[in-house]
Amino acid sequence: MLYHILDIFFVVFHSSLVIFNLFGWIWKKTRVWNLITLLLTGASWLFLGLIVGTMGYCPLTDWHFNILEKLGVTDLPNSYMKYLADRITGLDFNATLVDKITLYSFLGALIISLFLNIREFRKSKVHKAES
Predict the structure, then answer these.
(1) How many CB atoms lie within 10 A of CB 58?
(2) How many CB atoms are located within 10 Å of the residue 44 CB?
């Protein structure tokens, strides 16, 4: 029972984080937090990935997949996004395609978030100088 609850928690939490990473830059009030979560995600994929030997490493995926294994789920893919796409649709998506879409979407969101956060920072700096 506990593992089923944890499975649902991770699906909701991890999916919410993915959505926030992709679209959190839209609202002014969440832009800084969006940039922080994007940078943490990128650092996990790169730096933690180098440490554990798997580029794109995500501790949330690792923890969730450990729970799924305890529930008897086997043949889990390497990426959470492939797992999620397959789980939601019941289809078997191409892992390489999912990984590319994930990476390009992440980079797009990161570029937009950086641009908007830098612009807001410059605006606030100019506004403070004029005051």
Answers:
(1) 20
(2) 17
